[in-house]
Prior knowledge:
Layout: H1 20-38, H2 46-49, H3 52-61, E1 68-72, H4 78-82, H5 121-135, E2 143-148, H6 155-167, E3 171-177, H7 188-196, H8 209-215, H9 220-246, E4 250-256, H10 260-270, E5 276-282, H11 290-294, E6 305-307, E7 313-315, H12 324-338, E8 342-346, H13 356-361, E9 366-368, H14 373-386, E10 389-395, H15 396-399, H16 403-411, E11 418-422, H17 439-443, E12 450-452, H18 460-469, E13 474-477, E14 499-502, E15 507-512, H19 516-528, E16 533-537, E17 540-542, H20 546-555, E18 559-566, H21 571-581, E19 589-594, H22 604-610, H23 615-626, H24 629-632
Helix pairs in contact: 3-10, 5-6, 7-9, 12-18, 14-16, 19-23
Amino acid sequence: MNIELLPLIGDPAEIRALSDEQLLTLADEIREVLCQIVEDRPAHFASNLGVVELCIALHLVFDFQKDRLIWDTGHQIYPHKLVTGRYPDFHSIRTKGGLMGYPNPEESDYDLFMTGHAGASVSTVLGLKAGDDLLHPEEGRKSVAVIGDGALPSGVVFEAMNNAAGLKKDLLVILNDNEMGICPRVGGLASYLDKARVAPFYDGLKKDVSWILNKLPVVGKPTEKVLSDFKDAVKGFVHGGMLFEELGFRYIGPVDGHDLFGLRSALELVKDVQGPVLLHVFTNKGHGFEPACEDPVKFHTPAPFERTEDNEIVFHGKASRPAYTDVVSDAIHGAMQQDEQVCVLTAAMCAGNKLGKIRDEFPDRFFDTGICEAHAVAFAAGMAKAGIRPIVDIYSTFLQRSFDHIFQEVALQNLPVTFCLDRAGLCGPDGPTHHGVFDNTYMRAFPNIVVMAPGDEADVAPMLDFSLCHDGPASIRYPKSDAELVKRTANPVELGKADVYRWGTDGTFVVFGSLLPRCVEAAAELQKQGLDVGVVNARFLRPLDTATLFRAIEETGFVITVEESTLNGGFGSAVLEAANEARLPTDRIRRLGIPDHFIEHGSRDELLADLGLDVAGLIATALEMSRSPTLLDKP
């Protein structure tokens, strides 16, 4: 279809001048643009298709130049970007230097927070409301949070709702209920919301069933049966909102999230209601694009595809090597086949962590906690205490949310929990909210935890086997990339022992993690240029193989530590600390990794090149170190 209205919208105020017919056309145009984007590159798709009408209705009813709006989680931000003046740049989304795939305050004043993790929207929008009431009470700014049913079980949501009810702030929480997170939702709240789907519209006026029943006479068992049936019927009628009512929110809904004009009316209804309100909106993930409706998991962030004239989908891209995620999943599967005490836990990322086969084959030993990473870690600690060998399989950037429980429930108790940190390193077009670059620092902070990283595919299964036999907590980090294999005779994985690929006389790359193949390639190229540089696959950050490290420092011209993580407190810092404690010179050590600022989005290869972590950057650093006056003057 031709895109005619979107190019004319430079500001949301302009959509308020559109006729009802034009508003429906605008919704169709937004969906067409979303389809065009995913034909070119992977991007969040089904979630954005599901909120098109909701986005338009919000901007019709509220003025977010003044009012406040937080999208939680931010991957459903694309329609909002399109109606807030960013259509001309939308083709650049999720490319280096282009628009971010999440809200970004640097792009637009309509984006208030960079929201890449789920659950914080109610807290932040409550804070905005409290701040606005203190600073600008005369303006009467409205505050709105849009939160998905997948994010709803996050503990911080209920902390915020409890606080909001106590403060009695005028706050609108829109529950975007599409029966999905990235995968189908799980848990007791999921069952509760399922029941709400058959409940009629409820306006938030409390109905005290017990008061009515207490006024009716009870005579004989038949009457008791009638009263019981009556009580169940009334409870069923108001079921959809009672939980939120008891939490102190006025519940309104459910509302059809794809009826644009019904949504507009509902938002007008709740706009000026005093106190906290929850508007329950039903949407379909992938709405308007049948393949995405049928398989919203596959079309959450699909591979590029094209639409044929027969409306069939043809995916692009050639087969590649398995990703590290696949290799780890296979290793977990193998471990669970061998040992009935091994279980796996994930936090709403069964698909992302490629655990579907494990879930289907071992349903009693697979646990999806929903978007509740803190609970998942404490849950795993309890399982370990009972004698189970739990594997906590969570993205590095999301595991940060459980930091205190890693400390208190796992490390402090010295329990044998294995952490598999997926997406550790640069996550390409997902950007700074998803780059898993801090885990080296936060995992090495605690006593008792063994911290590992495979140098290549061959290290993965042995590391997992080691961790499942180790009498204490252990973590394994690996990137979002295709797995690579370095031709070598790998040594067994032993606690605190590095694997030396080769020794050199002029210098040494000491690499912690999957940049090992790049270091090997760089060393081979340097050899052609007359520089003999060795390569050490560190394998362990905690405990360090100080014997190997000290030999490299003392016997080779320089040491370059290499890690795909922040330099602050990371592997390179650990090497410097160990050298300093041993009173070895540290001027021959150079650290390469993520500098002290957030890294924007782009392809992984582009970002590694920018940071000097590609082969060319490694060669340049080695050449620079070889020419250092300190090294030239060495005896």
